[in-house]
Amino acid sequence: DHWQKIYSTNGLERVNGEIKRRTEVVGIFPNEGAITRLVGAILLETNDEWAVQRGRYMTLATIAPLSDDPIVKLSAVTA
User: Fold this and answer.
1) Residue by residue, what is the 3-state secondary structure of 49-75?
2) Tens digits of residue pLDDT in 26-62
3) How far apart, in whole angstroms, are the C-alpha atoms of residue 10 and residue 3?
4) Are the C-beta atoms of 2 and 62 separated by less than 8 Å?
5) Cα separation of 69 and 79, whole Å?
6) What is d(CA 53, CA 45) in angstroms, rounded to the nearest whole number?
């Protein structure tokens, strides 16, 4: 079930496109910290969107049976 999501780079390309779109709006950044804050905020926002859309992306609960790592299995049980 996960092969289509792993095989495709659409999710990564979408995130990179969003970062590019938002940084082009700003144009010139005053310092490196400003870039880091903007990209960090974009990544946090993307993470929140993916967490809400449980049916579209892989969740820890659906990946846990595939993993031999006990931490992954434990986290899926507590989630």
Assistant:
1) HHHHCCCCCCCHHHHHHHCCCHHHHHH
2) 989 999 999 999 999 999 998 888 777 755 666 666 6
3) 13
4) yes
5) 16
6) 13
